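seq:
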Amino acid sequence: MSPEYATFGLAPAMRAGGVLANGDYQVHRDFVDFVVDGRPLLFQLSDLDAVSPLASDVPPAIFSEQVRSLLLEAGAPLADGRYVIYGCPECEGIGCGAVTAVIERAGDDFVWRDFAWQTDERADLELNGYHGIGPFRFHGGEYRSALSSLLDSDGGAGRRVLLIGARVAVLAKLAAALRTIGIGADITHDAADVPADELRGYGAVAFGRAVGEQERAAVRRSFDRAEVDVAYVDGLAPVIPLLVAQIEHALDRRPLELRRLTRLIAADGEAAVEVTSTCRVRLTAYRLDRLYRTHVHEVFDDILETGRHRIALDAKAVKGESFVVARTSGSVLVTAMAR
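struct:
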């Protein structure tokens, strides 16, 4: 009897960065995720804040080394033939915890088996094994072709954002916050004289609320002439964490089936949220009072099962002009509270 095969593929993914309500920063990471049987493998690991070893911000030599390691062209980095499948997005140490697995050849095929959560030199399969995941057997040709294609690329382009607005102080703070979490940012009044090659380095353009429609149209024409497909962000309010969340959302160009968080609507004192796999979801409300002071409220933080959910919001948190940010480890959505 022939063995049962799983399909193997790769897809762009991200660990969403952001300025959190408590003032902490969460680093933005772009990486390549493993797609098994048409679904990101990371989604099968419940609520896990992690990235694959194929991250776009590592040096090219290290990126290539990681690819060749998964192709078994180098020895296993861990004991017992184990490889890191997902690791900490903030550091490289296994002490924070990593998902590891044995990768081996079976004839021309590749097999991933014995998945485990590992924090030490050796994995304890009985205590920390992912018993419901794998083993996966991949056709050798499909597996090698997918990974080898990465060696001909740069592992993913860096992300930069062009900021345009009237309030220089806000733009400067926003640029600093974006750079802190790993997203490049530049400030300008217009893009008319920017060379096309430079425009191609941007993934998004963010407009402040005071930027008029004529100015916005002129910027769009500059990018159209350069044949650059960028996301445009209309800043909801001069609130740095809110604007960072909007830009993170704009930079996420993945199809919906590769995202965990796919829907956010806020109206009538509640939020409607949809997730494609079980994960932790945090909802933060930002409210501007009559003096344009910002009030921040953490309104929800819990694990949600796959599907659609309705979450009641504290009336004080969403009074007047207010906005809601929904966040998982890999997705961010932003919406204004309907009035």
